Structures are given as C-alpha cells and as structure tokens.
Target: RNA-directed DNA polymerase from mobile element jockey
Amino acid sequence: MDPMTQWNICGFRSNFEELKLLLNRSELAVVALQECRLVEGQLPPRGYTLLLLQGGSPRGEAVLLIRNGTRFSEIDLKTGLHAAAAIISLEKTLTVCSLYLPPNSPVLKLSLAELFF
Model:
C-alpha cells in the first residue's frame, strides 16, 4: 500500500475522472494536490474528505484529500502561502502539508519558516 502521493493536478474538475481512477486503483490514505482551481460547491471523490488551504486563494490552490476513516487533525496554519496541513495517523503519526508556490511569485524564507512554527 502506498499511503500518500502528491499531484499538481492543474485543474480539479478537468482531471476529476483521472483522480477517481487513481484513488480506485490504489490504497492511498492521503493525496496532496496543487493547482486545483476549485469552484464553489466542488465535492471530493467518494470516500475522501477535502481539506482546503488555510492561507492564500479560496480556490484551493493546495488541498489534501484524506481517505474517510483515516484519523487526522487539521493544522491551523498562520501563513499567507497556498498551503493545507494535517497530522495524519497511519502506521506512524505524520505531519503532511500540501504547498503550492506559484512559479513567478517570490517566496520569502520567513513565509516558509512560518509553516514550521
């Protein structure tokens, strides 16, 4: 079982069928997605919870999909970056963060450091 994966999906809705195929063919507990471009009312694939980013765009530029039944606690990030994070209980307890850094936007080291405190 691969418990986690990451995908710069370049459009949640436009790649939704491929995402469902990936989830149906695997045992993924957590999927970190970037560039989701969510629309209002967008639902996650069946069997998963959609954890939206805390800072940045409300369009979900960084999200976590967490399989239902997986124990997790959302982390309230204090950052302006496009990021979503949670503490996930698998075989071990892990902190997982989905982070999207736009290619043409400068990122301060301080902004990245905020993710760790």
